[in-house]
Amino acid sequence: MATTDQGGELGFEQDIKPLFREKDRKAMLSYFDLFDHADVAENADAIMGSLAMGHMPCDGTWSEERLETLQRWIDMGKPA
Ligand code: HEM
Known about the structure:
globular; binds protoporphyrin IX containing FE; mainly alpha
């Protein structure tokens, strides 16, 4: 049994917000609030771009699995 259900529904509060650390949120607050659904939804393409290119966060790149989760959420229409 797969624990990560590739086809499952994703939600911001449950699946996306926990990907961001408190220090990520603090560092980026002057641009957007990574703990806020509306802010992340609005800036999702730029956020995904910086993560996928490995520019952000500065202290380590995201795993494929995390990138896929964020991309899948974007493709789903960024549900709350
Ligand atoms: C549009 C997307 C983003 C842009 C344009 C952006 C831009 C920046 C800039 C200009 C800084 C300041 C760099 C410096 O002080 O030298 C910064 C810092 C930082 N960002 Fe982002 N960022 C983006 C997305 C993200 C995301 C998605 C995360 C986390 C998942 C993140 C985590 C951080 C962290 C942790 C720092 C502080 C790094 C440090 O001082 O060591 N950023 N970002």
